[in-house]
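dumping these here so i dont lose them again. two proteins, back to back, each one seq then structure tokens. dont judge the mess
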Amino acid sequence: MAHVRKMPRKKSNGKSGHAWQVRYRDPDRVEHSRTFRTRDEAERFARKVEVSKDEGSYIDPALGKTLFIDWAEDWLASSAAGLKPSTVSGYRSLLNNHILPVFGNVPLAKIRPVDVRWFVGHLSEQGMSPSRIRSTYFLLQANFKAAVESGYIGRSPCLGVKLPRAIVREMLFLSAEEVKRIGTAVPEQYRALIYLLAYGGLRWGEAAALRRKRVNVLRRRVEISESLSDVDGQLHFGPTKTHQARQVALPKSLNETLKSHLERYVAKERDALVFTSPEGDPLRLPNFRRRVWWPALDEAGISRSVRIHDLRHTCASLLIAQKAHPKAIQQHLGHSSISVTLDRYGHLFPDQQDQVADALDEVIR
């Protein structure tokens, strides 16, 4: 049981006074004490301690004194094993540049919902983009959620926070004729890459990590099981975005282009990369964009606002135009679920409302 007792103390004016001390044991039988100015405060705390012990929700006050910076470092270190290097690098950047300067030296238990709401508003005032604000907040939220689960604090201060609406960047879609113009404009060494991105629907990292052993020209299949990322100047080969491998069927014309590419530009080793720099090194997106992509767009008469990733969007739009089933499109593009496909490209599918209404009319008749 928690015990309340009267304690003598010196007031700031030098006169004698008294305070009220609560002595109690935590669930591990470790003794603690806290001092309050009034008996009511002490008794409320004593009751709260006993109730939390009975309910199993007791929080050790000492853990709540952990500085956020210490908690965040431990959290990131323990989480890194299951994350991609690019994700860890992104988290580290958000922590160092935005979160730790504000919350780093504050104890976990001292951070309140009003502090988090102020923080989000401050980021907006500093001109941070809505998507970046959301990423920063969700990282902060993940830290506090883990702190609650680990018994460091009773509840997360990430409550009642209104986030700015994320701005979805407009997708740009190319026609098959425009894809051909770009493919003709790039050096021949990269023609197969352009067509594979546009008609195979690969992500850049998947194409950059593609190896000879993953290409089966006899079956017209490419196995996508690896991705290449550039993190702080360091290249990392790892799993795909969804951590799942998939088989991509190739159109006959693309298969022939890829077969010729393998014969002319790819080393014979099974692990040889299919697409490399002129020096034989793995492709880096910024270099490729500057040296190959933008000059090709200029020559093809296409705006530089078109991104390399828009070739993937182009693949989706062309498949939809050919009335491919959403499930087939999901598998071709390697989305984690069909809902991702429909959320991203649903607006491109023909409007089915009239067909549904006509079908119901037939039933009614």
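---- next one ----
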Amino acid sequence: MTTPENNKDLQSAKHTIDKEIEALRMMERDLNGNLSKALDIMQNTSGRVIITGMGKSGHVGRKIAATLASTGTPSFFVHPGEASHGDLGMITDKDCVVAISNSGETKELSDILVYCKRFGIPLISITKNPDSALGKAGDILLCLPDDGEACPLGLAPTSSTTATLVLGDILAIALLERKGFSRNDFKQRHPGGKLGAFLQKVSDIMHKGDEIPLVREDTPMPDAILTMTGKMLGCVGVTDSSGNLVGMITDGDLRRFMGQNILSLKASDVMTKSPKTITDDVMVAEAVNIMNTTGKGITQLFVVYNDKPIGIIHLHDCLKAGVA
């Protein structure tokens, strides 16, 4: 039921969204060559990208540092207050510093700014005020939009923190693209949790070597069934004289030939020809999709290289890996 209170809440929400979108559009319009210069500094830094900021800028800065680190740019956050009490030693002359302050006059940043100047550490300033202490101190200035906050009091950091967060994403994504950062690189930095599971490759979980159920085309079906039963994967692959995979026999194929004197047949008589296969560099999530969308759905895929079987993956393996 719609009430006056609900309408008021929705109007407030839409106003906040509109205001923050407006700030992002303004930042988009104002982007200039300094962005590429900042990226050059960050990409060519032989050390780490140090992010610093106080208050809400610091909270956003921690997220920016985490995003950079997870996408191939070594980075960590240094708290300005702690920096003045020994943590300046965490910053070396091989690093670069990205300092964030909406106003540009955050006094807690002063020691870091002086430290950067003293030891020639490249400084990238992020602020809305180019004439501020931070704006003038930076070797490169990246301007935040000066369009007020979404907060009706004009006090709580809202539009400014959103713009800062997006600017951090802009830097991280641009560096990712510059470096040719791949899915595999991303996986190496996210080994745990659901994301790590989805980024696994077929090669990470496939059965290989003696675990692969294989017989030749001329193998009598009693022997093929024994191999299929012994490997416990619900199928057996059939290879030709060159070792190429030419067919596959599943439990379904056995049921299909029941009553046809199956034990007198050879593997080539029962097999399904040209079975669906996959390569070992494919993501497990893609393998699951192939299983689910091929005909009535399959539960096994042989892994091949130049048509020769090098492994096999079962849907149960995907379930255990947390993907399916």
